[in-house]
Fold this sequence. Notes:
A: 5-stranded antiparallel β-sheet, elongated, B: 6-stranded parallel β-sheet, 20 strands, globular, disordered N terminus
Amino acid sequence: MSKEPIPASAYDMDHAEEAEERRTLAILVDNEPGVLGRVVGLFSARGYNIESLTVAEVDRGKHRSRITIVTTGTAHMLEQIEAQVLRLVPVAAVIDITKSKRGIERELALVKVAGKGEPRVEALRIAEIFRARVIDTTNESFIFEITGASEKIDQFTDLMEPLGLVEVSRTGVLSIRRGKDAG
Amino acid sequence: MDTHTLTDTQTTKRTMTGAEIVVTALKEQGVDTMFGYPGGAVLPIYDALYSEDSIRHILVRHEQGAGHAAEGYARSTGKCGVALVTSGPGATNMVTPITDAMMDSIPMVVITGQVPSHLIGTDAFQECDTVGITRCCAKHNYLVTDVDDLAHTIHEAFLIATSGRPGPVVIDIPKDVQFATGPYIGKEGVYKPTYQPKTEPSDHAIRDALDMMAAARRPVFYTGGGVINSGPEASKLLRELQAATGFPVTSTLMGLGAFPAGHEDWLGMVGMHGAYEANNAMHDCDLMICIGARFDDRVTGKVSAFSPGSRKIHIDIDPSSINKIIRVDVPVVADCKAALQALLGGWKRRKLAKPDIEDWKEQIAKWKAVDCFSYPPNNGAIRPQYAVERLYELTKDRDTYISTEVGQHQMWAAQHYHFEEPNRWMTSGGLGTMGYGLPAAVGIQAAHPGSLVIDIAGEASVQMVMQEVSTAVQHKLPIKVFILNNEWMGMVRQWQELLHGERYSHSYSESLPDFVKLAEAYGAKGIQCSDPAELDAKILEMIDHDGPVIFDCLVEKAENCLPMIPSGAPHNEMILGKISGDEIGEDGRRMV
Ligand SMILES: Cc1ncc(C[n+]2csc(CCOP(=O)(O)OP(=O)(O)O)c2C)c(N)n1
Ligand SMILES: [Mg+2]
């Protein structure tokens, strides 16, 4: 606000109809025992949503783990989520991947489809279009491995549904930012 | 550094047992007093304390007492409180004080024993998942699994508890780690890369704040517990900034004492049972300068109608407090002391003049003239407000510290006892814990042996922690427990009158003990008073007694605590005189 003239009271602004937004947050943490519990516990204690969650150590030497959480909330809520997560002692940084122009999101899924005859051929054809790999096959089933944005995976599983979709296992969203710098 | 501090050469690279590391680290941190209760899982640490005479250990009667005593010690000294308890039930009994300290931002380190490492996860005797249980109610916690990490962890715990927004930190130490030997590491150089609280305000925030302050016509300082936490210097700077600007000041329950109650620009406490003039000033101001307070629901009342015409500056060391409840115009993330210093420095450097706020002061004088805390004269029985007023008059010129329990008596204490200095008022604000005040008084008295320490109590609250009178007797802590005995859980009764058609469900204090005999049974002194004419003499008798006293002050039973902002109402709709029962609408009824 420093460069702008003194604003009117925040009450002059209209927050009445705040829409819910979807956000992908990358949370960089010290990989110490219980750290995931702290982050997840905060979300449940304060009534925030978790739509997807991934976590793994990403830097052995520095004991850093990266947690990617997809959440939804009003702009005000999302601002609070970031501030509350940053308040946790082992959290080094919170990056809003959705807002960042350089954000990239990917997900991996394993998709089992069972069937014979024409549907089986059709499943394989669609898999090719989506660049999904076959990683297991029997006479009556395939397991496909697919990576991409979450929407692409949704689309793929939707198309497989009538062709004999049996089950799906997804990693949840992974995130990183473009360019040469870390974080 | 004090005399207990070991020099670097003495402490670094010394090998000792885990239990000795605990005691050595506490000494290096300057701990002179701690509160605790032994048990199987902390016996090695107790053994190390046995021959240690530089740390005074106060044995309580229930672990909750140790926690609140540590809080009282901390809040009255500005130092970190320390408590030591065993695993399982010892740890679970600490959950209330840990949560209390979290809500009120009190620096506290709690050391809990844990079953030996190899038994963790087996449902061993007196095992509980202490770090799991306290994860969401402590600022941070640790399970120390390797004695090599112990010294570092303890120093880091003190750093985290006392810096940034202070809070409780729990260190869970398995018994085998207490027996194992490892290196002692000094506190020098201990820091946590992911934990770097911002304490200095940014220049542009201060500049914007000063611009608004210079242009204000109806300003108000709204200060909170953060000013007290920031240290006595912050209170001093607040007074100087007020003198430079001439702005009126109100404070939350937790902030009382940061600004002197005797000052002509003091508005009294804000909030649900705050002063009429304070709440109206908050509602009608054109500039609110919030310093170390957090727009708690007990302060804001109805959020959508909160101070509708004002711009707001919010100084807070915790970025998550800003814009959490109330949107503000100028956020200042900083320690209160640093922010006050910057504001005062800028005000002087820019040679800003006191804005003309005479109209505003006239308006405030009109609100003040309502005399919202007035009450009818005693009518046979002692009115609780009168009792607090007399207690104040008879103790104000002494070196006095006040703690409270939770209920009507707490609010009457806040309304009718007046504080000129910080760190003199200890109360459970955020969590509202009945049973806080008596053990807190134990902790305060341990920190200030020669001072007069009074717990203003309710007869229901005090029974939650009555056993700590025995602690006071054992350790020669001459605390005074001044019970406003109305034979009711008065605050509950008041809400039932207000909201539930006078159906007083389970709020009568049935089968009360004879408090005088109870005091005597503990080896303390008991005094009872029911006659207003005898009150002064008996209060003086209480003060003059060199030992713990339980004062059973029998007061008017059905007195309501007023004024009051009914829940769901805005600040300018306070109930002043009598409660009719129609004040609270359907929405308010659902609130707490
Ligand atoms: C541990 C705990 N349990 C319940 C409550 C709810 N509560 C708030 S005030 C109150 C009554 C307190 O009665 P008393 O101590 O006699 O004080 P009074 O209001 O009569 O002054 C109760 C039960 C609480 N604040 N804390
Ligand atoms: Mg009572």
